[in-house]
Design brief:
One of its GO terms (molecular function) is heme binding. Helices cover 63% and strands 0% of the residues. The chain is mainly α. The structure holds heme C (HEC).
Length: 115
């Protein structure tokens, strides 16, 4: 592979990745914080997950992963009785807002930051 081609390819991949990251996080984290406080943090906060291995850590997870999970619980593609009940009343924008807020929180997960 020529050096120029390889540099161009790397730049294209980097641009594509950051465009994708922006495209997927179309949520409002301020609104997401309110929704999380009202509906999610009793199970997904630091205190809630301490010593409880049934409730996963989602703080700091990628927004698109969180959004996809919430959509999958709603569609039934991901089958979990607890989470199905949680997402039932959420609009797509609610899910985006929640994904946006949770992805910005510091938590116990290690997810490499995007450039
Ligand atoms: C009563 C406790 C409880 C509440 C409240 C709750 N969750 Fe969950 N959540 C769970 C459990 C249990 C799982 C694991 C389900 C599974 O095995 O798929 C889970 C899984 C998830 C996952 C997938 C995590 C992963 O690593 O794949 C996401 C995302 C999530 N919850 C988001 C939310 C959001 C957003 C809310 C608020 C709207 C919420 N949860 C409210 C208990 C809860």
């Amino acid at each position: 592979m020529s050096r120029l081609f390889s540099i161009t390819l790397s730049a294209a991949i980097a641009l594509g990745a950051s465009a994708a990251a922006q495209a997927v996080d179309r949520g409002d984290p301020t609104r997401g914080a309110e929704l999380a406080e009202a509906q999610c943090l009793q199970c997904h906060s630091a205190d809630a997950i301490r010593g409880n291995r049934e409730w996963p850590e989602i703080r700091g997870q990628y927004a698109e992963y969180l959004l996809q999970s919430l959509r999958d619980y709603k569609s039934g593609r991901r089958d979990n009785a607890i989470m199905r009940g949680q997402v039932e009343g959420l609009s797509l924008q609610d899910k985006r807002d929640l994904a946006s807020w949770f992805s910005r929180q510091e938590g116990g997960l290690y997810t490499p930051r995007r450039p």
